[in-house]
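User: Can you help me understand a structure? I only have the sequence.
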Amino acid sequence: MPAKQKTAVVTGANKGLGREICRQLLADGFRVILTARDESNGRAASERLATDYPDIEFFAVDVTVQSDVDALRHYLDDRYQRCDVLVNNAGIFPDPRHDLDNPWPSILTANIDTIRLGLETNTYGALRLCQALIPLMQANQYGRIVNMSSGMGQLSDMNGCCPGYRISKTALNVITRVLADELQDTDILINSMCPGWVKTDLGGEGASRDVSEGADTAIWLATLPTGGPSGLFFRDREPIPW
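Assistant: Let's start by predicting it. Here is the structure, written out as tokens:
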């Protein structure tokens, strides 16, 4: 009996890095569920990919809305009875900086609501997806989870500015470590990664990497063999300090 096609979910995937991760997973033979909170943009991205890769679907998910996440879980369970890969790519940069002439936002003057906004999307959103979809992985005794973090969340290299983003990404790394410990001795591997400075809406046109380079480590982690690393932080396929 041929193996069933693996199913991957990529959040925040209507553009940039997320869309490129979808494209590379599709090229590797996955069925991909592209999710985004903006339905029109998400459907448009899915339709563009579908011209070359028919195994793409769109599902509207705002990772800050529990009912959206629950609806995705029910859809995957009813239709495919599986989720093999989850890439938690959805994220925001909440710290306001209106132009390059302004200083980077300081934690001394940060609005707590701004920090909370970063946590809601970048941290709690990823946790919601993990809580919803890991049971499907457990049912099939297989899973790969990639949490899109950042070097700005590294405690080993922490400095000032941008507290909403930094705190949310550091907390995301904590989720990676906690889940990896609870899932040890299973074939569900979860890791954090930093894609580097990538040409996206967040990274800007001055960034040093294109989206294909930024996506490379995500694809590598999403396709790790049994016995691969779990509970680590990577950049360019190499472990980096927390």
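Now, to help you interpret it: The beta strands are 7-10, 31-36, 56-60, 85-88, 143-148, 188-193, 233-235, 238-239. Residues 84 and 143 are 5 Å apart (CA to CA). Let me know which part you'd like to focus on.
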